[in-house]
Write a structure and sequence with these properties.
alpha+beta; four-stranded antiparallel sheet
């Protein structure tokens, strides 16, 4: 189940960026403030993909799921819309 997150409504939500799941990446202001003028396009894209949090949406209940993954971090936060 490495490419999936189970929503609080029990629905499985895909978290693979490269299979058309409509995932967004959250890039922090601190990341954007660093001068990367000498970085290549490929290295910049790789850094964004590796360091950013993923924003997913459950298609069943509408919850927003934010996934933070790193070497020593695995955190999942759920947010349910007020009108749901």
């Amino acid at each position: 189940m490495g490419s999936w997150v189970r929503c609080k409504c029990k629905q499985l939500v895909h978290k693979n960026l490269f299979c058309g799941t409509g995932i967004s990446l959250l890039v922090s202001e601190e990341f954007l403030d660093i001068d990367r003028s000498n970085a290549t396009y490929d290295s910049l894209v790789t850094e964004i993909v590796v360091t950013s949090r993923k924003l997913l949406e459950c298609q069943v209940c509408g919850r927003i799921i934010i996934v933070r993954e790193g070497k020593d971090v695995y955190q999942i936060d759920f947010f349910k819309p007020d009108n749901a």
